[in-house]
Amino acid sequence: MTTTTTEVLDHWIGGATHAGTGARTGPVYDPAKGVVTKQVRLASAADVDAAVRSAQEGFAAWSQVSLAKRQQVLFAFRELLSARREELARILTSEHGKVLSDAGGEIARGLEVVEFACGAAAHLKGEYSVNVSTGVDVYSVVQPLGVVGVISPFNFPAMVPLWFFPLAIAAGNAVVLKPSEKDPSAANWMAELLREAGLPDGVFNVVHGDKEAVDALLTHPDVAAISFVGSTPIARHVYETATSHGKRVQALGGAKNHMLVLPDADLDLVADAAVNAGFGSAGERCMAISVVLAVDTIADELVAKVRERMSGLRTGDGRRGCDMGPLITGEHRDKVASYLDVAVGDGADLVVDGRGVEPDGDPGGFWLGPTLLDRVPTSSKAYADEIFGPVLSVVRVSGYEEGLGIINASPYGNGTAIFTNDGGAVRRFQLEVTAGMIGVNVPIPVPVAHYSFGGWKASLFGDAKAYGPHGLAFYTQEKAVTSRWLDPSHGGLNLGFPEHD
Question: Any catalytic annotation for residue 118?
Answer without folding.
Answer: no
